[in-house]
Design goal:
12 helices, 4 strands, binds zinc ion
């Protein structure tokens, strides 16, 4: 199967955000040092790579610590083959391999962590990158819905979002490498929201069923959905969010688009 194309807004939003950050850096350097914009540009040619190296080092350390903390409380899914020890984990391992094949994704490590959230995220600077699923997902989602979520997270890896997001600490639950990263993460949220639309396409390619993909997204917003009638009710609630001014304003500060918009984008893409 061919990997789905990125959402068309992803690359333009990244380029515009990078331009904004570069302009902010130049203005800040010029304001702090009293240099002209030209001198500030020359200085930033050295300063930006140096800052990048510092952030990379700090992020690598934060990643190692985060990984070690995960291992203490998480169950690792046997991604390389069935072990025969735990049927649930073996079935999850099968799903991970099917998703990897559908998206031509590099090797990954996948962990289940205890918690109350219906959520998942991805991090890592090196292969294998790490996908984390919160335990409640296993209780409320069926096989296809879980494959949508795993495929979505693999989308962040195959489209190259994971590296930038890990450096900037922009993903849910990720440790932030530097206080300054908060500012960058805020600026990058516009791009991060475009990335979510691309990864929903990857999730759909992995699960292969639009209705189950929509049900997975709906469950991220409202929790357990078991029947077609419950799904219709949930979609009506989510649809009302889309019309709310408050929700639309809140989205500007979030790194995820509203679920209603993600569902609409997925329906349009599958058409
Ligand atoms: Zn995502």
């Amino acid at each position: 199967m061919r990997r789905p194309s990125r959402h068309p807004s992803e690359i333009p939003t990244l380029l515009i955000t990078l331009l904004v950050i570069t302009a902010m850096a130049l203005v800040s350097i010029a304001a702090i040092t009293g240099m002209t914009a030209g001198t500030a540009f020359c200085v930033s040619l050295c300063a930006v790579p140096a800052l990048g190296m510092i952030m990379l080092g700090a992020s690598t350390m934060a990643n190692v610590q985060h990984h070690q903390a995960l291992l203490r409380q998480a169950y690792r899914i046997p991604v390389d083959g069935r072990t025969g020890e735990n049927q649930v984990l073996d079935e999850l391992g099968d799903m991970v391999r099917e998703c990897r094949q559908a998206l031509s994704c590099e090797p990954v490590d996948v962990f289940i962590v205890p918690g109350r959230q219906v959520n998942a995220y991805t991090f890592g600077l090196h292969t294998p990158k790490v996908i984390v699923l919160y335990e409640p997902m296993l209780k409320i989602m069926n096989r296809d819905e879980l494959k949508f979520v795993i495929g979505h997270e693999m989308g962040h890896i195959v489209y190259g979002h994971t590296l930038l997001n890990t450096l900037l600490g922009g993903m849910a639950g990720m440790p932030s490498s530097l206080g300054a990263a908060l500012l960058f993460a805020f600026t990058f949220r516009w791009w991060a929201r475009a990335c979510e639309y691309s990864c929903d396409r990857a999730g759909l390619a992995a699960c292969g069923d639009l209705t189950r993909g929509i049900a997975a997204l709906a469950q991220l917003a409202v929790g357990d959905i078991d029947t077609a009638a419950e799904l219709q009710q949930a979609l009506a609630v989510i649809e009302r969010q889309d019309d709310s001014v408050g929700e639309n304003m809140g989205e500007l500060l979030s790194d995820h688009p509203m679920i209603a918009k993600r569902i609409k984008a997925l329906q349009e893409y599958s058409r």
